[in-house]
Design goal:
With 285 residues, the chain is α/β, with parallel strands linked by helices. Helices cover 46% and strands 17% of the residues.
């Protein structure tokens, strides 16, 4: 009996020794939020991780959030750096799937500020191209949230648009410059509806009152003359010649101001790296 118990314990210990590394590797492989600068708390990381897992299940597409704080990492090298993260996992520290999108932040605050970068790989390069990068910069709260240190909000909003773009891509007509995304109108709240109704009622009242005064005034045939010229007999005064003489002229020219935009960035067309297709774009914050 004792031999059987010892044999059973030996089997359990052996299985534990062999399974633990595999379990550890699986947990690393499944992780999709890598916050190496600790700008997110654990609950925020968990919520972002859950959202990414839902995207993986629904669209068979990978999303990775990687936050670092690295000096001597110039902005113009971020394309090659993020390509390398995807292609090689930076000496296998990370495990990324081929079809995916990498959302990358470098929190090192250099002379240009901090940097963000999007890198789409394979199917991700086709869906998340320059149109997506520019839309996130110009038409969402992503950049302002980064500037205001609302990092969870910036990532959460980005995942909203990742799902929107992935869902559209399934129709065979992904969003692009020729097929732009149109944000749906938000339903009007009860308070806003009441305010607009009161404004419209006030405008209608003022218009009706003005029209009534005009009708009342038209019924009075004895109209008081308000200008002296109305008392002049038009046939008694005739001007045969009129001439305006200007002795000086002054022309003022004001240049049209050019548009400026903060948080500048750039994007790239699809390129090949490490046997994969990549798209890339980002900016400063």
């Amino acid at each position: 009996m004792r031999k059987r118990i010892l044999l059973l314990l030996l089997c359990i210990v052996t299985a534990f020794v062999f399974l633990c590394p595999a379990m550890a590797d699986g947990s690393v492989d499944d992780k999709r939020v890598f916050d190496e600068d600790d700008i997110l708390d654990s609950s925020e990381e968990d919520k972002l991780q859950d959202r990414i897992e839902e995207i993986q299940k629904t669209y068979n597409f990978d999303v990775v959030i990687l936050i670092v704080n690295q000096e001597n990492l110039p902005y113009d090298s971020l394309m090659a750096v993020t390509d390398d993260y995807y292609n090689n996992g930076i000496t296998s520290k990370y495990a990324f799937k081929n079809d995916g999108l990498l959302i990358f932040l470098n929190m090192c605050n250099d002379e240009d500020g901090r940097d963000y970068w999007f890198n789409g790989c394979d199917r991700g390069a086709e869906i998340f191209d320059n149109y997506f990068f520019n839309y996130m910069r110009d038409n969402t709260g992503f950049l302002n949230k980064l500037k205001n240190a609302n990092y969870y909000g910036a990532f959460d909003e980005t995942l909203d648009y990742v799902e929107i773009f992935l869902k559209q891509a399934e129709t065979g007509k992904p969003y692009s410059d020729s097929n732009p995304y149109k944000k749906p109108k938000e339903p009007m709240s009860g308070t806003k509806f009441t305010v607009l109704a009161l404004i419209e009622a006030g405008i209608a009242f003022l218009f009706g009152k003005g029209y009534a005064n005009k009708l009342r005034a038209s019924m009075n045939t004895a109209i008081k003359r308000t200008e002296a010229t109305e008392y002049i007999n038009q046939s008694s005064f005739n001007v045969s010649r009129a001439q305006d003489i200007f002795m000086y002229s002054n022309v003022t020219r004001t240049p049209i101001p050019t548009e400026t935009r903060s948080g500048g960035g750039s994007g790239s067309s699809i390129h090949s790296s490490g046997g994969h297709s990549h798209s890339g774009g980002g900016g400063h914050f």
